[in-house]
Specification:
Helix content is 85%, strand content 0%. It is an all-alpha fold. The protein has a single domain, classed as Alpha-lytic protease prodomain-like (Up-down Bundle), CATH 1.20.1510.10.
Length: 214
C-alpha cells in the first residue's frame, strides 16, 4: 500500500545516502591533508623554501575549496554542487598563478633553500597526503557522479604534483643545479593549467547534462 505523503519507510532516501557519502569523502580527504600541514610548516620555517611555501598555500587552498563541496552535499543541491565545482576550478587556477609567480620570482632573484634533506622529506609527506586525498575524492566523485568531487580530486592531484616537485628541487639543488628549482616550478605550472582545463570541462559537461535532463 502506498503512502499518500510521498515518501517510503524502512530505507534511507537515496539523496540522503548520497549526501552522507559525499560528506564522508570530503572529511576523509581533509583529514589526510591535515596530517601533513604541521610537519610541512615546521620544515618551511627551518628551510625558507619558496617551493615548499607554494605547496603549503596549495594545501590550504585545497581545504578552503572543499568547504563549498561539503556544504553542497549537506544541502543536497545539484546547483550548489555545480557552483562548488566552479570554485574548485578557480582554486586550481589560483594554484597555477601562485606556482608560476614563485617560479618566475626565483628565476629573477635566485636563492637556494637550506636543509635539503628535511625539504625532501616534507615533499614526500605532502605527496603522500595529497595523493590519498585525490584517490578518495576521485573514487567518490565517480561513484556519486559528482563533477565537483572529481574536480577536487584533480586539485589534490595537482598538489601532489607540486609536492613531488619539491622533492625533485631538493635533489637537484643538492647536486648543484640551483636553477632547477624555478624550472621545475614552471613545469608544474603548465601541468596545473592543463588540469584546470580538464576540470573545467568536467564541471561544464555535468552542468550541461543536468540542464538538458531537466
Amino acid at each position: 500500500m502506498s503512502h499518500p505523503h510521498g515518501h517510503s519507510h524502512g530505507r534511507i532516501d537515496p539523496s540522503i545516502g548520497r549526501s552522507r557519502a559525499g560528506l564522508r569523502a570530503v572529511a576523509a580527504s581533509l583529514a589526510s591533508l591535515g596530517s601533513q600541514r604541521s610537519p610541512q610548516t615546521l620544515v618551511f620555517i627551518l628551510t625558507g623554501s619558496v617551493a615548499l611555501l607554494a605547496d603549503l598555500i596549495h594545501n590550504f587552498g585545497d581545504a578552503l575549496a572543499a568547504l563549498p563541496i561539503g556544504i553542497a552535499f549537506a544541502l543536497r543541491s545539484p546547483r550548489a554542487e555545480h557552483y562548488a565545482g566552479l570554485a574548485v576550478v578557480l582554486a586550481i587556477f589560483g594554484s597555477a598563478c601562485v606556482a608560476g609567480f614563485e617560479a618566475i620570482d626565483r628565476l629573477i632573484n635566485p636563492s637556494a633553500p637550506d636543509h635539503l634533506v628535511a625539504l625532501a622529506i616534507a615533499g614526500v609527506i605532502g605527496f603522500g597526503g595529497n595523493l590519498i586525498a585525490a584517490v578518495i575524492r576521485t573514487r567518490a566523485g565517480r561513484l556519486l557522479k559528482s563533477a565537483a568531487l572529481i574536480a577536487d580530486g584533480n586539485h589534490a592531484r595537482v598538489d601532489a604534483l607540486v609536492s613531488l616537485g619539491v622533492v625533485g628541487s631538493a635533489i637537484l639543488v643538492a647536486l648543484g643545479a640551483d636553477v632547477a628549482d624555478p624550472l621545475i616550478g614552471l613545469a608544474i605550472t603548465v601541468g596545473i593549467l592543463r588540469i584546470t582545463w580538464d576540470s573545467w570541462r568536467t564541471v561544464r559537461s555535468e552542468h550541461w547534462d543536468h540542464e538538458h535532463a531537466t
